[in-house]
């Protein structure tokens, strides 16, 4: 027994055991790397997380539908609230408690730049519609016209105040942190307000152009999760270990099909398709754009004979919706991959924890930001007429001319028409 204990405790034996342990641990690491354990299909707690995520999704969709029902102004307010939460989550990424204690005003400075950017962006987008809303009241109209006229100057003044505030609060040994916060704040403003400006512009072109792209991203996200949950086996990208090819392909097919049929349903409601020219909240009625008027479509000859329909009514906008669906399923997910890489760089799981099972607001808006920009560019490039119209000229007159100038223009037009 003593000999056995001596042999087992000898240096060579201990070294051999240590090597064997290293080999076994390295082998386990290789197995872990090759094993699709991060995938949802192999997650031990997947059903619990599935239920939490499902409940949160139902609440979000319910709230989203209610806001859309309330109209353009309320949707814009929702976008505004989302922006504030996104900015808060992103501001907190580079915050350091010890430095913030030494710089008590740095948080207020960040929000000063944020609200200055908000005034600039929303002022440019909504000023024309605000003027259209208050035309009946001369005092309010003069006030709004003055604010619109000096809007750029007011925003520039506010920015200069923030810039001087930043310079005057620079502290020794804090320069690097302060300049890092300054640059980080401006990057957040670019990311947040670039997509928001396109989103709000889409809303007032017609809720359809906001609702359809947003819905396609939601559908793609839901079905990517469902297909990955039940069928996921092949990892898609290292940045997102739980994303699978099965989920990606299944969600893509579902999203494109959904785009075609959703466009048909949404395109039949004037409340969703009519553009809003003011900031009122009443129901909209307008002559349907040709895009939203049904046209007969004959099915191709290769359709099987047992198929009951040979001809169907299709809205022209449905063909455009296929492009939106293709982008939402193929390109927009890369916004999520970008966010995943961003989170890995900061070694965090989620941007926040405000939505159970989903993370933060920013985690849900990564793909929406990419989609909103594409929807706006596609709408302005291929759908919206760029020709001058009476409504556009009137909007320019109401926005840029004073009441006296408008009266003079009206008199001149009357004289010209009378002479003709």
Task: Describe how the helices and strands are arranged.
Layout lengths: L1 H7 L2 H24 L11 H25 L1 H20 L5 H6 L3 H28 L4 H12 L1 H18 L6 H31 L1 H25 L3 E3 L2 E5 H22 L3 H4 L21 E4 L12 E4 L2 H14 L2 H13 L15 H22 L7 H11 L2 H17 L1
Antiparallel strand pairs: 1-2, 3-4
**Biggest pleated-sheet summary:** 2 strands, antiparallel
**Rounded mean pLDDT score:** 82
Number of strands: 4
Q: Which ranges are low-confidence, i.e. pLDDT below 50, for 5 or more consecutive residues?
A: 1-9, 22-36
Rg (CA only): 29 Å
Sheet/helix structural class: mainly alpha
Give the oligomeric state of the chains in this entry, treating copies of one chain as homo and distinct chains as hetero. single chain
Order of helices and strands: HHHHHHHHHHEEHHEEHHHHH
Shape label: flat
Number of helices: 17
């Amino acid at each position: 027994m003593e000999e056995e204990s001596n042999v087992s405790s000898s240096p060579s034996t201990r070294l051999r055991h240590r090597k064997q342990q290293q080999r076994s641990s390295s082998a386990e690491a290789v197995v872990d790397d090759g094993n699709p354990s991060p995938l949802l299909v192999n997650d031990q707690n997947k059903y619990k997380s599935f239920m939490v995520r499902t409940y949160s999704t139902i609440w979000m969709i319910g709230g989203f539908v209610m806001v859309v029902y309330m109209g353009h102004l309320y949707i814009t307010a929702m976008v505004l609230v989302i922006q504030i939460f996104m900015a808060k989550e992103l501001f907190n990424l580079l915050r350091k408690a010890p430095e913030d204690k030494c710089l008590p005003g740095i948080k207020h400075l960040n929000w000063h730049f944020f609200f200055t950017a908000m005034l600039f962006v929303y002022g440019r987008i909504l000023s024309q519609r605000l003027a259209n809303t208050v035309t009946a009241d001369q005092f309010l109209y003069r006030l709004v016209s003055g604010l619109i006229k000096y809007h750029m100057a007011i925003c520039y003044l506010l920015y200069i105040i923030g810039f001087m505030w930043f310079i005057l609060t620079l502290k020794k040994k804090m320069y690097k942190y302060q300049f890092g916060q300054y640059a980080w704040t401006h990057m957040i403003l670019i990311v947040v307000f670039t997509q928001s400006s396109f989103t709000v512009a889409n809303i007032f072109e017609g809720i359809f152009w906001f609702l359809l792209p947003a819905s396609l991203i939601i559908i793609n996200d839901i079905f990517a999760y469902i297909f990955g949950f039940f069928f996921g086996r092949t990892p898609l990208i290292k940045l997102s270990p739980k994303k699978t090819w099965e989920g990606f392909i299944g969600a893509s097919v579902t999203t494109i099909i959904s785009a075609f049929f959703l466009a048909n349903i949404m395109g039949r409601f004037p409340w969703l398709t009519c553009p809003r020219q003011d900031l009122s909240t009443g129901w909209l009625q307008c002559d349907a754009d040709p895009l939203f008027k049904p046209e007969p479509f004959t099915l191709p000859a290769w359709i099987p004979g047992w198929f009951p329909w040979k001809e169907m009514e299709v809205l022209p906008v449905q063909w455009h919706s296929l492009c939106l669906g293709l982008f939402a399923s193929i390109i927009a997910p890369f916004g999520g991959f970008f966010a995943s890489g961003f989170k890995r760089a900061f070694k965090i799981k989620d941007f926040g924890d405000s939505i159970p099972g989903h993370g933060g607001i920013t985690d849900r808006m990564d793909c929406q930001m990419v989609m909103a920009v594409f929807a706006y560019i596609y709408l302005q490039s291929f759908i919206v007429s760029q020709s001058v119209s009476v409504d556009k000229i009137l909007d320019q007159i109401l926005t840029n001319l004073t009441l006296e100038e408008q009266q003079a223009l009206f008199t001149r037009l009357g004289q010209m028409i009378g002479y003709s």
